Amino acid sequence: MGRTLELLSELLGGNGGRRRYKKRKQFQTVELRVRMDCDGCEMKVRNALTSMKGVQSVEINRKQYKVTVQGFVEPHKVVKRVQATGKKAEIWPYVPYNLVAHPYAAPAYDKRAPAGYVRRVDAVMPVSSYGGPTAAGPQEERLVTMFSDDNPNACSIM
Questions:
Q1: What is the distance between the alpha carbons of residues 114 and 118, in angstroms, rounded to a whole number?
Q2: pLDDT classification of 80: cutoffs 50, 70, 90
Q3: Among 147, 154, 138, 133, which residue's Cα sits nearest to residue 105?
Q4: Which single residue of 7, 40, 71, 136 has CA 20 to 30 Å from 23?
Q5: Rounded CA gap, 149 and 70, in Å?
Q6: Number of neighbours of residue 119 by Cβ within 10 angstroms
Q7: Are 155 and 132 in contact (CB under 8 A)?
């Protein structure tokens, strides 16, 4: 009888007309860089992540130090859970090199990056439209003049 009264009060607005809704998390794919050396490290990270609420799948590529988590999770909580295992974790810092304007420039190139990847660069580097030295940045202008015929100290191959 007591449960029936609770249900009727909820239907009739017994909460003062206020309903509490939980904010629904979106399905996300979170990629992390986690250094793992052995099967034990891999299992420790996998067990910590699969026990999280909302995780659908966990993929680990130990050769690239890459962990991919899919599910209804928040990225910062996934990083915290991996760090609780004692491993250093960060959001995957690399992007495919064909998505970057200058993949071999100093801020993007990283020799520790997996094959085909360069470091994610937040600041977009300007791409020259070959409109002259005003359109080019200082780095490009220096490279153009380094190999010009007007420069007596240019490369002897040219």
A1: 8
A2: very high
A3: 138
A4: 7
A5: 55
A6: 16
A7: no
Closest CA to 145 of 102, 103, 108, 158: 158
Residue with tokens 């940045």: 137
CB 60 within 8 A of CB 67: yes
Beta strands in the chain (DSSP E): 28-34, 55-61, 66-71, 89-91, 94-96, 117-119
Q: Token pair of 127, please? A: 């791409």
Report whether 44 contacts 54 (CB < 8 A).
no
Question: Residue 74 is which amino acid?
Answer: E
Per residue in 31-73, pLDDT (tens digit) is 999 999 899 999 999 999 999 999 999 999 999 899 999 999 9
